[in-house]
Amino acid sequence: MNCITCISYIVIGIMVLSAILAVEWRDLLAAVVGMAAVSLFASLLFFFLQAPDVAMTEAAIGAALSGAVFIFAIKRTRRFETEEEEKPGWWMRW
Q1: CA 41 to CA 61: how far, in whole Å?
Q2: Contact (CB, 8 A) for 35 and 70
Q3: Each residue of 11-63: pLDDT tens digit?
Q4: Which residues contact 41 (CB under 8 A, 6 or more apart)?
Q5: Does the global pTM surpass 0.85?
Q6: What is the C-alpha separation between 85 and 94, in angstroms, rounded?
């Protein structure tokens, strides 16, 4: 196993962790940052797979543009979810 493969596995693990945190965070702005992190790590994986054009597109549209749209929408609404509908995490719902 070469170094690029090890780095790819680490990036995939961080990407999965960021996706789980983006779903579980109650603060919507933090969830958008988690979503943008998933997209940035995906663009890093595309770069490792020698697809720099796809990596640049994913970083520009997936992280920057989508993140900006979500942040603009959060700015126009409430930032935090209400506590009245407190439910257990996804691991408890199974």
Answers
A1: 13
A2: yes
A3: 999 999 999 999 998 888 899 999 999 999 999 999 999 999 999 999 999 88
A4: 11, 12, 14, 15, 18
A5: no
A6: 18
**CA-based angle 54:55:60, to the nearest 5?**
100
What's the CA gap between 47 and 52, in Å, rounded? 5
Characterize 22-56 residue by residue with b for buried, 16 or more Cβ atoms within 10 angstroms of its Cβ, and e for exposed. Answer: beeeeebeebbbbbbbbbbbbbbbbeeeeeeeebe
Task: Judge contact between 74 and 29, C-beta under 8 A.
Answer: yes
In angstroms, the CA 52 to CA 46 distance is 7
Side chain identity, residue 91: W
- What backbone torsions phi and psi does residue 59 show, to the nearest 5 degrees? -70, -40
